[in-house]
Amino acid sequence: MTSPFQQSWLMTRVGGFCARFGFAIPPVKIRAALLDYSYLLGSSFARLGLGGLYFAILVNCLSLGDYGVFASAVATALMIGNGGTFGFNAPLFRAAATRPRIVGAYVVALLVYALATIPFVLALTFLAHLLILGSFISLPSLIAIVLSEALCARLVLTVQSLHVGLGRYALASAIGILPQLLRSAAVAAFWFFAWKGLDHWASLYLAANLLALLIALLSLPRNRLRWRTKILVGRLSESLAFASAYLVLALQTELDKLLVLVMTTPDTAGLYALTMRIIELVTVPLRAFSPIYIKRLMRRPELLTDRRLGIGVELAIAVAATGLFALLLVALRLEPRILGANVAAANTWFAGLLILPAAKILTDFHRDIYFAANRLYSSAVIALLLLALRLGGLALIITLLPDHNRWLVPPNLLFGALYAVSAAFTWRSIYGAGGNRIRRLPPDAVA
Question: Are 289 and 370 a contacting pair, CB within 8 Å?
């Protein structure tokens, strides 16, 4: 617990930092923002700890090849999951952040769309198994993984973002920890009972995610739940735009795992997926910042046009991401087997990837900026370009360097180039753009 003097000093320092970027925030609002962020940051550190435990156990319970197949199945599920609820989580978050009194009608619409997308999700799963993954994983196991990610985990994340939009940061933090907590319990059971193979793990994975979904649904606000056809139909175009933009983004961030699996071996795919997962874990605390920042940009769109603020925030994220990854490298240097034998085998990779964490999280951050600016189609077009560059670059690396032990500098160059392209478009079309270039949310039909 900080003293009043410490709080005053902290408020003064934060206020001074904000003033440097051209906008002033009253100390009361700074205190409230720091408290809100502390809830989400605490949740992120809890998820980081649980995620590290979960990852360390799983990657050492499964063979490297099985882990590569599992990661590819999860990547497939994440891509399919963008069709879940037809993207209605975007209007739901906007309503929670700007019109909380009518959010009950949006919750009803979300549940309707979630049920409607189940046949769609199952059909795409069967198609993915038939065309790509049939020789690597059984259909029931793939269905279990896809339902876990595309339906359960996605809805839990939507409920969490709903609570963030409503300003219920403590509850949002608890919901955010829940899936990782239950997955960690599932993987602990998997290790304790010495079960083997991907089929057993897929069943446990589905059970953990279903339980997380049930608890999350119980936390939904039950007041003013009502059917509104205007919302169900009227917000469909925005929902589909969001789903399309994020589908392209998911292809950009997840399709590479399938590409590596198809072009190399399950072991190499496992090593690549393991590396990407390590980077995701390292940047978990930074991702807690994004929802609060994006919510503020949605309420004050003029901040989107402040190039100095935008670039300053990106610089801070880059420094923090690189610093966190460097700390991980030091820990692995001191104790190479801290995350198990399979991770220790990849330690030589990590030292050459110092640029990648910052480049990856900032490219994802640009997507959130476009969402705040309500420029989803522009985001989709840029994501398509980045997808082509990422897959083309990765295929070139695999072709020219079949031995994955030589993949040290090339991934840095590839992800650095992807960030440079994304930054060039974002800085030109969002940061520093005129106010008429920012599309504000249209009035709600029932407001």
Answer: no
